Amino acid sequence: MKRLATAFLIGFAAIGTANAAEDEAVALAQAFCGLAALDQGMGRMYLLSSGLTEKVTAALVAGGQGETAFRAGVPWASGDAAANICTAGAVATEGGVTLVDVIYGQGDAGWTDQLVLVAGEGGALVVDDIRYGKPGEAATLGEAASALLTD
User: Fold this and answer.
1) Is 127 a residue whose pLDDT tops 70?
2) How confident is the model at residue 28 (pLDDT cuts 50, 70, 90)?
3) 41, 56 in Cβ contact below 8 A?
4) Which of 49, 51, 82, 132 has minimal CB crowding within 10 Å?
5) Count of beta carbons in the 10 Å neighbourhood of residue 74
6) Any residues with CB less than 8 A from the CB of 135 and at least 6 apart, and which?
7) Cβ within 8 Å of residue 82, ≥6 positions away
8) Positive or negative CA dihedral for 115, 79, 42, 87?
9) Amino acid 87: pLDDT
10) Strand ordering across the sheet containing 109-119
11) Distances (CA, A) of 105 to 28, 82, 116, 138
């Protein structure tokens, strides 16, 4: 009986931990959406991992005067239209990272990108990359920054 109770408590604790991680991922995606209007989306830089911040900053600096290497700005989303809907979606784990969908909408158009989250300094989740469009078909923010630096 004691073993059964211990197994139940361990299972219950794991569920609580999973829910806390999912809640943190959703909160980060909501912050990502909320920062869209701040400084033309550049407020989102505060949510990035140090590695992704370095890539994006280097690509921005490489653009020179007036125009950045990202041209119209950092491609925070795969859609070209300014979305009037941005919300957190499903959360999943894959190979040691947490993935959270960001669902965008503008009029009749809608699309979903994925934030790739990892534990940053202090253990809090940070955005380590953004997957654009359909999984396996699209580029990422990190790839876009790296490509611009090698052109």
Assistant:
1) yes
2) very high
3) no
4) 82
5) 22
6) 114
7) 106
8) negative
9) 93
10) 85-94, 97-106, 109-119, 125-131
11) 19, 9, 20, 19
